[in-house]
């Protein structure tokens, strides 16, 4: 029996030769991302002080002030100031301000590698799965534990495989694929599961389009969204100067999926999500 991308990443990160969906494992975190809204000021600083510990590895932490830059009022300005000073105090060199949205900064500055485990204090951290990583959002309390230990526990998620084949019609794009998929799966149909996108439609997509797909995975309740590694992944990483070695991961042909959906891209029309739910 083969393994999904999620199972392969979880096995490596937990130090096991193999894991299977629904196993509970402790995983080493390769990168922890915080933004200004749910970053150090909220629970994290207080919890670390209570435990009497510092950040386990400042080189694996990225802090991005993006929600409140530029600040709209004094309150927001003080939050950004606190975040900036906290990063300096804890010797976190990967601090960004006025650099763009946190998820864009993460991928365009080479902070996400295929096969890595990334957690972030934003629900759309799942965006990074477009680079064949396992990325998921966490709350501030859980992030405090990650910063203290470099680990967290996870249940290895089951994987829903979503296959799109064919050419997209004119004016139909990745966002339409995402909305159509969520409409089929349901707005909570992928809760604590991985949405893995595959098929020749996906393989033809540039990375910006893939990032759109994985960004929206959480809107179906997914723990992660993933696209397998290929030449598009390699070219994107090279474009931004990534030279570190990384895993080239795809699900095995005989991997076990909890559900599979198949769509024909040529039949897709522009999609609109009406209130009050995305599906």
UniProtKB/TrEMBL annotation:
Lineage summary: Bacteria, Bacillati, Bacillota, Clostridia, Lachnospirales
Full protein name: Isopropylmalate/citramalate isomerase large subunit
Taxonomy, superkingdom: Bacteria
A molecular function GO annotation: isomerase activity
Gene3D superfamilies, alphabetized: Aconitase, domain 3
Domain Aconitase/3-isopropylmalate dehydratase large subunit alpha/beta/alpha, first and last residues per copy: 8-277
Name of the gene encoding the protein in the UniProt record: leuC
Record's keyword annotation contains Metal-binding: yes
Keywords recorded for this protein, A-Z: Iron, Iron-sulfur, Isomerase, Lyase, Metal-binding
Gene Ontology BP term (one): oxoacid metabolic process
């Amino acid at each position: 029996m083969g393994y999904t991308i999620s199972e392969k990443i979880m096995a490596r990160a937990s130090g096991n030769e193999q894991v299977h969906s629904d196993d509970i494992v402790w995983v080493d975190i390769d990168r922890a991302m915080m933004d200004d809204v749910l970053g150090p000021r909220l629970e994290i600083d207080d919890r670390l002080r209570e435990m009497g510990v510092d950040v386990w590895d400042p080189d694996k932490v990225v802090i991005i002030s993006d929600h409140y830059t530029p600040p709209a009022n004094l309150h927001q300005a003080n939050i950004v100031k606190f975040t900036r000073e906290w990063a300096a105090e804890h010797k976190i060199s990967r601090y960004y301000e006025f650099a763009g949205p946190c998820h864009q900064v993460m991928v365009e500055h080479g902070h996400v590698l295929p096969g890595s485990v990334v957690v972030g204090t934003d629900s759309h951290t799942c965006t990074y799965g477009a680079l064949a990583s396992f990325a998921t959002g966490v709350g501030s309390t859980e992030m405090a534990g990650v910063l203290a230990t470099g680990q967290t526990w996870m249940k290895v998620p089951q994987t829903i495989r979503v296959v799109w084949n064919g050419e997209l019609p004119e004016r139909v794009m990745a966002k339409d694929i995402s909305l159509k998929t969520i409409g089929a799966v349901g707005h909570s149909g992928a809760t604590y599961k991985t949405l893995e996108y595959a098929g020749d439609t996906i393989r033809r997509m540039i990375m910006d389009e893939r990032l759109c797909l994985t960004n929206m995975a959480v809107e179906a309740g997914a723990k992660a969204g993933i696209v397998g590694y290929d030449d598009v992944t390699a070219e994107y990483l090279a474009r931004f100067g990534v030279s570190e070695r990384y895993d080239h991961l795809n699900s095995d042909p005989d991997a076990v999926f909890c559900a599979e959906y198949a769509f024909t891209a040529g039949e897709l029309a522009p999609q609109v999500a009406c209130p009050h739910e995305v599906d």
